[in-house]
Structure formats: C-alpha cells, structure tokens
Amino acid sequence: MHLTIHWQNFTPGASLVGGMLIGLATALLVIFRGKIAGISGILGELIEADHSANPHRLWRGLFLIGLVGSSFVYQFFAPLPQSNISASLGTLIVAGLLVGFGTRMGSGCTSGHGICGLSRLSLRSLIATISFIFSGFVICYLFLHAI
Amino acid sequence: MKNIITLVAGLIFGLGLIISGMTDPAKVIGFLDVAGLWDPSLMFVMLGGIAVAFVGFKFVQNKSEAIFGDPIHLPGRTHISKELVIGSLLFGAGWALAGFCPGPALVALGAGYKEAFIFVIAMIVGMYIHDHLFKACKITKAA
C-alpha cells in the first residue's frame, strides 16, 4: 500500500511534547500513588456498582476531575483547539458502546495498554495495542472508503 | 497533598492530550485513515508518553510502596487471552468510528461538546453491559 503523509496536519513537535506530558502524568501517578493511569480502567472501576468490594474511589474521582477540568484550565493560557467531530448521533452511540465494552473486555485502552503497558514492556499490552490499532485501520478504511 | 497530586496528574494528562492534538477526533481519524492523507502525529504522542512513563515505572520497579505510602499495584497478568484480543479489536472499531478513545472524550466533554457527552454516556453504558450483563452471564454459565 502507498502511504501519503499529510504534511500540513502533521505536528510531530506538539504531539511529542503533549505525549511527554501524558507520560509525566502517568509517572506522577505511579510514583506518588502507585496507580496505573489507564483511563478506561479508572472510569470503569469508579462506576462499579459494588462499593464494598471497591473502596478506592477517591483517587479515581480526583484524577478524572483533573482530566475533565483540563479544558477549562487550558483556556487561561491559550484558545482551546477545536474538536472536529464528524460522527452522527447514531455513530457516536455505537462507537461509545464499542469503546466502553471493548476496553473493559480487553482490560485497557490507548492509555492503559498503549502508554502504561508498553512503557512497562508488557507483551499483553503490545498484543492489545496492535489489535486496537489494526482494528482502527480496518474499520476506518471500511467506514471512509468502502461503504 | 496526595489528593492534590492525584488531581494535578489528571490535569497534566488532559493538558497533554489537548497539546498533542488528540482531543480532535479529525486528527485521530487522520492517523487511522492510512488510505487517505496520513497524519502520523499519534505515533509521536505514544513515543513521548512511553519515553517519560518508562522512567516513572523504572523508578518504582523494586519498590513496594509509593511516595504517599499506597501499595504499588502493577498489572501482573501475562496471559494472552481471547478476551484481550477481541476486546481490543472492538475498542479499535469504536475508536475509528468516532475518533474518540476514553481520555480525549472526557477532555472534550469538559470543553462542553455535546457529541462527547453522548459518546461518554454510551461508553459508560458499554462498560456497564460488559461488567454487569456479559461477565455476569459468563460466570453463571461457568457455574
């Protein structure tokens, strides 16, 4: 297959710096609290209905408040970049269901497997990351070019 | 203090997602659409994230307690299960359809996008279906 790079959209510098901040947040969470910064795991365990079996909700809640609040804080320094969302209502719902179900079944997402797992040199996370990127390539192709 | 650090870690994580461009689904789809004009930026996000997180995990490697005294819980499973692969394939499909994975969706929700709100509600329902209906059903069958 022939790859053509979209040079106008390519932002290696900003993406590398942003990625390093994600890595810093991950490092802070494990060094200070001993926890894994996997977003689907944090959210999934937080909404677990069985409270008695899961007493460690405070740190998850705090981390997610920081995450959700980051847009608000960013605005004090620079205009917030646009999120261009082209998916229809139905697509958003199907996509959300798949992401929620799939990340719980596969025990992680782009952060838990892609950042935490790969930086821990976990084979399990490498298999998971290859699986979701491969599936992303295929479904993206089918959705944009074949159907 | 430990609560502040936890909150700040979440905040830095979100700022990283915004700066890296990952809160824009069009940019994520630009990476996943290898047949179109390809934007490899996402690989640089992973590269930067992995490089710094690697140092963090090295730091705690032989420790049993984190700085604030919590036990360090690192995932110990090594088994490559079919759930791992099938779950990740399903996740990748949803990721490609909307251009959102869990972190950026939550950041976009905080920025007030109603599409992100719809996605996050559906994602929570999907998590609930897995944890309470699908898994519970499997446990019942096994018993």
Structural class of chain A, by secondary structure, is: mainly alpha
Number of helices of chain B: 6
Rough outline of chain A: globular
Helix share, percent of chain A: 55-70%
> How many domains, in number, for the residues of chain B?
1
- The total of beta strands of chain A comes to 1
Largest interface: A-B, 113 and 117 residues
Q: Give the assembly state of these chains.
A: heterodimer
Question: Tell me, what's the shape of chain B?
Answer: globular
- Mean pLDDT of chain A, as a whole number? 94
What would you say about this model in short?
The complex is a heterodimer of chains A (147) and B (143). With 147 residues, chain A is an all-alpha fold.
Report on the structure:
The complex is a heterodimer of chains A (147) and B (143). With 147 residues, chain A is mostly helical. Chain A is built from 7 helices and 1 strand. Chain A has helices at 12-33, 39-46, 58-68, 70-74, 89-105, 110-119, 123-146, and one strand at 4-5. In chain A, helix 2 packs across helix 3 (58-68) and helix 6 crosses helix 7. The longest helix of chain A is centred in the last third of the chain and has 24 residues, at 123-146. The model of chain A has no long low-confidence stretch (mean pLDDT 94). Chain B has 143 residues and is an all-alpha fold. Chain B has one domain (2-142). Chain B has 6 helices and 1 strand. Chain B has helices at residues 2-20, 25-32, 41-60, 82-98, 102-110, 114-142; one strand at 37-38. In chain B, helix 5 runs antiparallel to helix 6 (114-142). The model of chain B has no long low-confidence stretch (mean pLDDT 94). The interface between A and B is large, with 113 and 117 residues.
